[in-house]
Amino acid sequence: MTTPPARGVLRVLGIDPGLTRCGVGVVDVSPDRSARLVHVGVVRSDPAAAIEQRLAIIAAGLRAVIDDHAPEVVAVERVFAQHNRQTVMGTAQASGIALLVAGERGLPAATHTPSEVKAAVTGYGAADKRQVQAMVARVLRLDALPQPADAADALAIALCHAWRGGRAAAAASGPLTPAQRAWADAERLARR
Amino acid sequence: MTTPPARGVLRVLGIDPGLTRCGVGVVDVSPDRSARLVHVGVVRSDPAAAIEQRLAIIAAGLRAVIDDHAPEVVAVERVFAQHNRQTVMGTAQASGIALLVAGERGLPAATHTPSEVKAAVTGYGAADKRQVQAMVARVLRLDALPQPADAADALAIALCHAWRGGRAAAAASGPLTPAQRAWADAERLARR
Predict the structure, then answer these.
(1) Sign of CA dihedral A120, A122, A123, A126
(2) For chain A, which residues make up each domain, given as ranges?
């Protein structure tokens, strides 16, 4: 179990869903938008294993991260049907597992599109992966880019959620979207 | 808990994955291909609820069906990316949950495409839904078509798995596909 976040700091678990490599990144984000790395890693499953066993391994790995680091909210990269059809279904299934595990632990979850993540982290929605990774390393004051890329992506998703959600919730005048509601709930918890 | 199947009879749980309505059907299939209805139903989740809560509700509902009826194998309809993009991701996530629940209960799982299901049940891969439902009702000696359609589809998937897997495993000369391996394992269990 990691040290709990300081008062007012939001701990976010970002997940880059995948069957073979599922990136996980936990960050503590302060109200002034500064951020600290809590955990980064990858949950792997053997491509030769049966799909039902692979999904069970991923679920177990994600539960372990939640139990070890106690995030207050889970952010998952949104999967699109128009991507590579051979892998998109596995990615979608892994994203379902990520959301399920959040729900079963009583954590709010939100999804963000790849371009939302890029825009939130670099200020530019068409940024390339390398630019996103470099910015993640800089924000978290890491000596090197997190490896593999799935792990760096997970950190970017977590940062995106904290930064976007925070502003969105503060600016919202109408009913909250699920992501905004998740943030608002998480903020409330973080301030207790 | 339902009565266990007779010796040599395979109990299959068929799942028609969906977020709003997830069809579930349990059938006992004899080596002579005759079949008996054990359970049919639908696990529902509220479209207004958060996705992580919907997936948790579906997982809990599927686990309850497995615990109540003790199937030996789980068959899930395969989802395709080219279908309606607005719902396909939710369906893919629900299918991931179905496979996960099977894996976590130690059950082999297999997926079948809609046309495999139609062909196995009616002998015709382009059969319409009504023809499939009518054949399911006839095979299981039901007085009426199972309602809603998702429940009937789940029964068709279960029958498809028993009928296709059985023949495929018997005829297989090369390495088994995951579905065939699942059947072979299930047959072995059923014969103990």
Answers:
(1) negative
(2) 10-191
Q: Do B55 and A182 touch (CB under 8 A)?
A: no
Question: Quick check: A13 and A99 in contact, CB under 8 A?
Answer: no
- Answer yes or no: is pLDDT of B5 > 80: yes
* Widest distance between CA atoms in chain A: 50
Q: Tell me the ipTM for this assembly.
A: 0.82
* Residue B13 or B90, more confident: B13
- Range A10-191: architecture per CATH: 2-Layer Sandwich (3.30)
3-state helix, strand, coil in chain A (%, to 5): 50, 20, 30
Q: Does A75 touch chain B (CB under 8 A)?
A: no
Q: Looking at the partner chain, which of A50, A53, A103 has a beta carbon nearest the beta carbon of B56? A: A103
DSSP string, B29-70: E-TTS-EEEEEEEEEE--TTS-HHHHHHHHHHHHHHHHHHH-
- Report the top-level CATH class of B10-178: alpha beta
Take residue B104 and report the two structure tokens written for it: 């976590």
A150 counts as catalytic: yes
